[in-house]
Amino acid sequence: MTIKKKNILTSEDIQQIIDFTTYCERNDGLEYKPSLYVDVLQTRNEAQVNDFLYYQDDKLVGFVSMYEFERPTKLELIGMVHPSFRRQKICSNLLDAAFDEIKNRNINDLLFIVNATSTSGNAFAKSFGLQILFSEYSMRFKRDSTSFINIKNTIHLVPATTEELPNIAKIASKAFNDSLQDNITWLHKTISAPNRQLYMALFNQEVVGTITVSHEEEVTSISGFAVNPSYQGRGIGTNMLQTTVQRLLKEGKRNITLEVETKNENALQLYKHCGFEITASYHYYDLINK
Question: Which of these CATH numbers, 3.40.50.300, 3.40.250.10, 3.40.630.30, 3.30.70.580, describes 2-135?
């Protein structure tokens, strides 16, 4: 067996990962593909190794991929092993290979994501001595939703400009309790990504919110949704989300998703009000204190 450490994934590598994930989904009766973030796999940073592929006789039997979201000091990992090769320490070996790479980076937040209903995935995490930090729901827009009847547009949602990134970063920093510099770094990456669109919400010509749309082959995901705390409670967040989804529907997008922390009841109710329903849940395990 061989572990291949990849800084760039070929189109063949990515297709292998997608096909492999599809097989595991069918075998386990669970949804895994939304966690792949294919658009990220397609635009890897050549200077870093982020993907670890485990082969037996040229057959992919497991992988671990690392994702840098929100800030450069935080990594989220996902992993998968072929059903016939589980309990053979393949995922442990893949994580060890990932740790060798991670120790060369300035990482202070390291998360391992597992579908909450995956018996094998959660059993592995517990056997590896991991603790759950938090959990999130994956939500999908219901096609028959009537939540967009009589929308009252209180804001203008427009593509973000480089000039406004500092203001957008301040809003995101307050909303997500992250550092301003980390948000500026992440927003610069987002605005330059080919498959993502960063929007800003204008209220009386002032930037009061932001939201990001990511396009993949089968899924369009919404993230980075934040409203200036000074303007919360005025229906601006609802209007932003409704306007975003309405535009996506007009573009022919039908598989529209987002994620929300399970304990964030206010956001959860907002998303349900806007026509989203829970489709899956995921546990985020702490790897930094492993």
Answer: 3.40.630.30
